[in-house]
Predict the 3D structure of the following.
Amino acid sequence: MDWSNKVVLITGASSGIGRGLALELARRGANLGLLARGVESSQLAAVAGSAALLSRTAMEPSPRLLEVVDQIRRETDSGSKAGSQRTMALAADVRDAKSVRTAADRLRDEFGRIDVLIANAGIGATTDATELDPEEVARVLNVNVMGAVNSVAAVLPEMVERGSGQLVALSSLSAFF
Amino acid sequence: MDRRNKVVLVTGASSGIGRGLAVELARRGASVGLLARRRNLLAETVDHICEAGGRALALPADVTDADAMRAAAYKLRREFGPIDLLIANAGISVNTFVPDLCEKKIAQLINVNVIGVVNSVSAVLRQMVDQGNGHLVVNSSLAAYRGLPKSAAYCASKAAISSFFEALRIDLKGSGVDVTIIYPGFVKTPLITNIIRTPYIMEVDQAVQKIVRAIEKRKKGYSFPWQLATIARACKLLPIPMYDWIAARNSFRG
Ligand SMILES: NC(=O)c1ccc[n+]([C@@H]2O[C@H](COP(=O)([O-])OP(=O)(O)OC[C@H]3O[C@@H](n4cnc5c(N)ncnc54)[C@H](OP(=O)(O)O)[C@@H]3O)[C@@H](O)[C@H]2O)c1
Ligand SMILES: NC(=O)c1ccc[n+]([C@@H]2O[C@H](COP(=O)([O-])OP(=O)(O)OC[C@H]3O[C@@H](n4cnc5c(N)ncnc54)[C@H](OP(=O)(O)O)[C@@H]3O)[C@@H](O)[C@H]2O)c1
């Protein structure tokens, strides 16, 4: 597959698998939108999950997301074949449909379209059956399920209208059993 | 199993399968807490049960409200004693269309069908584990087996609670608390009014009898009717391209 003129949106790109995919696809020349939760622009204050904070627009990419962007820049500058590869850092919380939509819109404004969505953002948690905490379960489902729904919703109309596109979800072998 | 003196909490008991289960278990001697949002419908069913000599309590609550669920379980325990059986049955259904996924509607469905079930379990589990016995039942669906056309959200919710209950079943082994997952096919209730093809559809009473039997046998999983269950199981084994071809040509939602 030729990635060099593709625009790829990766959620959860600041760490782990998402980060790894970002670095690899950049090497292959893909233009990237890298999404992860942001920090408040005034201060790099810890971001709590409250709705009030989420709706605040003054969010900027977190240091660890910017670090991924930097690493890609260093690699592409050091003369790999990636050449004209471009990367955009997007601060958004996948639990917040509006913020994901805004991020996708910004990526489209910049690069014209989104060819591939990699819905990767996710969290894990150990559930203790006898001490079941509904809030903890809700939190996991919100990121892992609604996060993927919100990400798909943000890119799908344009893909369908254009008649091409690709949706990739990071599930888990845990889903098989 | 003798349902006499058993205390049962049924969620989604104002209509359809949940209402049927509540009435039938009360008829068999159980003391039943009926939980749903529409209090007038709950009151009618409670009256109906009591007139027939049964014991029942209306518990108006929304399953998405964890505190309200805890309060309802507390009320039921105070009235009838420790809860022996939870039937987490409350659920809703929506069509999911592409490309304009209506995230709000999907979030709402996940909230009722998944978080609602988690809240229901959470409200009773501590007490069941402490007393060393109990029974958790969830009303999933054959739709949990694979993704179906125009049903992305509904299928996701049913797959989620099925896996959730399966994991609990393993964690609760040896605790005395049993876990049962029910996978019904089509049942004639208001839930399926926007479904146009309903092969092997059953009357509520018929479905209720089958579910009660599975609960009494403390089955780990129970899929029915056997015709649609067999098809669903076969579909699970099909390779993806073949499954997609068949599923696209046999949409239940038109
Ligand atoms: N590692 C495994 O063994 C494994 C196995 C199977 C499947 N997976 C799946 O693979 C995916 C990636 O996992 P990983 O192992 O790479 O985990 P990870 O290193 O913890 O990365 C998770 C990523 O998701 C982002 N994220 C979390 N909550 C978010 C939110 N609310 N909004 C936006 N972004 C959010 C994080 O970024 P911020 O915190 O910066 O926002 C981070 O970039 C997950 O879906 C996981 O379930 C992992
Ligand atoms: N009918 C079928 O063909 C079929 C097939 C497979 C599985 N199922 C499953 O069986 C279960 C029962 O469905 P049904 O067919 O009997 O449907 P139904 O007649 O529409 O009943 C649904 C019940 O859920 C309750 N409910 C909905 N939202 C609620 C909320 N937020 N809080 C508390 N209660 C809520 C409703 O009560 P209020 O509106 O009064 O709150 C009602 O009592 C569902 O989980 C459904 O997915 C049905």
About this structure: Chain A has a mean pLDDT of 88. Chain A has five helices and seven strands. The longest strand of chain A covers residues 31-36. Chain A touches chain B at residues 97, 127-135, 137-138, 141, 145-146, 149-150, 152-153, 156-157, 159-161, 174-175, 177 (CB under 8 Å).
